[in-house]
Design brief:
273 residues, globular
Length: 273
């Protein structure tokens, strides 16, 4: 909306389109991560793995279609639940690292074992993990007192996310050798196993599944409102601006993005997505 008003409809379309594509390619990443951590509890063959990913996206799409209030409450609950195991990992992990100083020092040295040649690629992946906060501005029309609520939500959210990301990654790299982390798609399980044993691995796997569910759920909520707004302004097909008669949610946009995300979930390389 800002770009369209400032520079015209074409730049506005390009900004909105780029953001929508970015959000839709993020959705399958969380589905893939969910299936990877679920594999800790249940052995999944190739067919089952992809069925879990599609089902994961379908359930979250349905939650968003039913009600924005329901979607918000689900996201609040998932946020609390996903922070609890991370808090446990950080609190006990720092103690574990302090009690095993020699091993911790060995895991943290050298600081950059492969030099800085791949630093730009690593930075891109780190930045991708942090983005998403901008979506909090998109459903402003459905937020109570948005002028006050949204800025506060961005600041508080970013402070919480930054703190947890930095400390969590420090603990993971302090207790698990980087050679093991390189070959794993489930680093929290490795850290949980090192600190708590088998029970910790299960707790971290469950926490990670909750975490990616919350991230994907909020991604769907924001991205669907973006598509709805662009369609209402004539920048996307008008059908995406359709509201459900009963639930008053942009169900066509939700179903469309959920279908595209489900197709992309068959791409198994997270960094490519």
């Amino acid at each position: 909306a800002y770009v369209s008003r400032a520079f015209g409809p074409l730049p506005g379309f390009l900004a909105g389109w780029s953001m929508w594509i970015a959000e839709m390619t993020a959705m399958p990443v969380f589905a893939i991560a969910f299936s990877a951590y679920l594999g800790h509890f249940v052995a999944l063959d190739n067919v089952a793995t992809h069925a879990v990913r599609v089902g994961f996206l379908a359930v979250l799409t349905l939650v968003n279609v039913v009600s924005v209030r329901t979607a918000g409450r689900v996201n609040d609950a998932l946020t609390v639940l996903k922070l609890l195991p991370l808090f446990l990992l950080v609190a006990l992990g720092l103690g574990y690292a302090a009690m095993h100083l020699d091993a911790t020092r060995a895991n943290l040295e050298p600081f950059a074992p492969f030099g800085f040649a791949e630093f730009p690629t690593a930075l891109m992946l780190i930045f991708w993990a942090y983005v998403g906060f901008e979506l909090s501005t998109v459903p402003a029309a459905e937020v109570r007192d948005p002028r006050r609520t949204i800025p506060r939500g961005i600041w508080v959210g970013m402070l919480i996310v930054t703190s947890f990301y930095l400390v969590t990654n420090f603990v993971v790299t302090a207790v698990v050798p980087y050679e093991e982390l390189m070959g794993s798609s489930t680093p929290l399980i490795l850290a949980g196993t090192a600190i708590f044993g088998a029970t910790g691995a299960a707790v971290m796997a469950a926490g990670a599944m909750i975490s990616v569910s919350g991230s994907d759920e909020s991604d769907m909520l924001g991205a669907s409102r973006l598509a709805y707004a662009m369609a209402a302004d004539g920048l996307l097909p008008h059908g995406l601006a359709s509201l459900h008669r009963r639930f008053r949610t942009p169900y066509v946009a939700l179903i469309a993005q959920g279908t595209i995300a489900a197709a992309l979930s068959f791409v198994d390389v997270l960094s490519s997505l």
